[in-house]
Amino acid sequence: MLEFLSQQRPKILIIGDFMVDNYTWCDCSRISPEAPVLVAKTSKQDQRLGGAANVYANLKSLGADVFALGVIGDDKNSEFLKENLKGEFLIQKGRKIPFKNRIMAHNQQVLRLDEEDVNDITLEDELIALFCKYVKDFQAVVLSDYAKGVLTSKVCKTFIQKANELNIPILIDPKGSDFSKYSGATLLTPNKKEALEALKFENLDGENLERGIKKLKDDFSLKYSMITLSEAGIAVYDQKLHIVPAKALEVYDVTGAGDSVIAVLAFCLANKVDIFKACEIANEAAAVVVSKVGSVSVSFDEIKSFKRSDLEKKIVSKNELMKILNDKNKKIVFTNGCFDIVHFGHIKYLQKAKKLGDILIVGLNSDESVRRLKGNERPINSEFQRACMLAAFYFVDFVVIFNEDTPLKLIADLKPDILVKGADYEGKEVVGANLVSRVELIEFEEGFSTSKIIEKIRKQND
């Protein structure tokens, strides 16, 4: 898919709050004699595209033919934008383009100084006329709203109506607590905090996440409803809740990750890519971005070269695993479970299972599956975290996540030789037993269980 996308050049229109991000890099080695503050000696200045302009930079880096529309001012920062963006801009005299000056010391942001004008633009009708003139020539539209006054209610509603008339996807990075001006959009990309403000929910945990994401879809007539969940990935609602897991393990700076996500989603939808695959690629793009410092763009080459850790290489989809197993003439051992808090009992159990064959596969219940089986307070750890913990053991060869309550379909597709369960299944029906050559029951180490560990922690915190 990445190879296909890297060869495409969709035309994408970007409108919103174009900003300038400035980075003042400093050396700090002493305290001021005048006050108890650090003395920062400037070493260099680094001016970058920010806000909607950073989405533009990401789309261009991905290979899109990008065109910007907007309202800027007559200040020097507006000149910087005009020099670095292809597009058409209306000039509102006296308006200040948002300018964020980040003071950086030893790769750490210590202060941010903002200059901006956040009043609603006075050129709404002119901007709408420009949009109507250009939009028919594009395959996707992105509205990047930073609540700086460009994307007013009138502007958003008119843009969405026109894009829908032309059957052009319109994607919006929203701001504020009132999403009504975005009604009818293809999708919104609120983060958890933004979604909470719009929904007026106390939290988005457990069932609230599905209830909230469905409410966003219904209340604002969205084609796709999603909420970005930071390190947990992207939640997407399509008849039911799906979580597309995040890829990043190391995070240095989350600045601009949302811009990269919406850029990739727009690029993918412009090329008719399935929404779930689009979210998967968007997560990979975000993983590249958060591993860097500051507002940066990402390319498909960087995404392609994004290396999964050795742990993640063991975490595979069912289809990937079926291809791997077809090429191997080995004895396959399969077991499954939630493995929420991995303990000594699990370790001994899996070690014994591995000794029964050549390749040990662990089927792992997804977060949704765990919640259905054990209640909304579980799992304690996300499916990606649990999968990584299992993959860390040398005796586990592959981990595959399944969303059903039982692994029956997974067993039917993988066709393992040996199915392993705990000795507590003695005399009970083992799901999938009729699909394998034999079933092995392994004794658990006494005194170890996830439930007991959780109960012990709760008692200590009472």
Secondary structure elements and pairings:
Blueprint: H1 2-6, E1 11-16, E2 18-31, E3 38-51, H2 52-62, E4 65-72, H3 76-84, E5 87-91, E6 99-105, E7 108-115, H4 124-134, E8 140-144, H5 153-165, E9 170-173, E10 187-188, H6 192-199, H7 207-219, E11 225-228, E12 234-238, E13 240-244, H8 257-270, H9 275-290, H10 300-305, H11 310-313, H12 318-326, E14 332-337, H13 344-354, E15 359-365, H14 367-374, H15 383-391, E16 398-402, H16 408-414, E17 418-422, E18 438-442, H17 450-461
Parallel strand pairs: 1-4, 1-8, 2-6, 4-5, 8-9, 9-10, 14-15, 14-17, 15-16, 17-18
Antiparallel strand pairs: 2-3, 6-7, 11-12, 12-13
Helix pairs in contact: 2-8, 4-5, 8-9
Protein described:
This protein has two domains: about 1-305, 3-Layer(aba) Sandwich (UDP-N-acetylmuramoyl-L-alanine:D-glutamate ligase), CATH 3.40.1190.20; about 310-460, Rossmann fold (3-Layer(aba) Sandwich). It is built from 17 helices and 18 strands. Strand 14 (about 330-335), helix 13 and strand 15 (about 360-365) form a beta-alpha-beta unit. It has helices at about 1-5, 50-60, 75-85, 125-135, 155-165, 190-200, 205-220, 255-270, 275-290, 300-305, 310-315, 320-325, 345-355, 365-375, 385-390, 410-415, 450-460, and strands at about 10-15, 20-30, 40-50, 65-70, 85-90, 100-105, 110-115, 140-145, 170-175, 185-190, 225-230, 235-240, 240-245, 330-335, 360-365, 400, 420, 440. The strands form four sheets. It has a six-stranded parallel β-sheet, with helices on both faces. The chain has a five-stranded parallel β-sheet with strand order 16-15-14-17-18. A four-stranded mixed β-sheet has the order 3-2-6-7. It is elongated, with a radius of gyration of 26 Å. Helix 2 packs across helix 8 (about 255-270) and helix 4 packs parallel to helix 5 (about 155-165). About 35% of the residues lie in helices and about 25% in strands. The protein has about 450 residues and is α/β, with parallel strands linked by helices. The model has no long low-confidence stretch (mean pLDDT about 90).
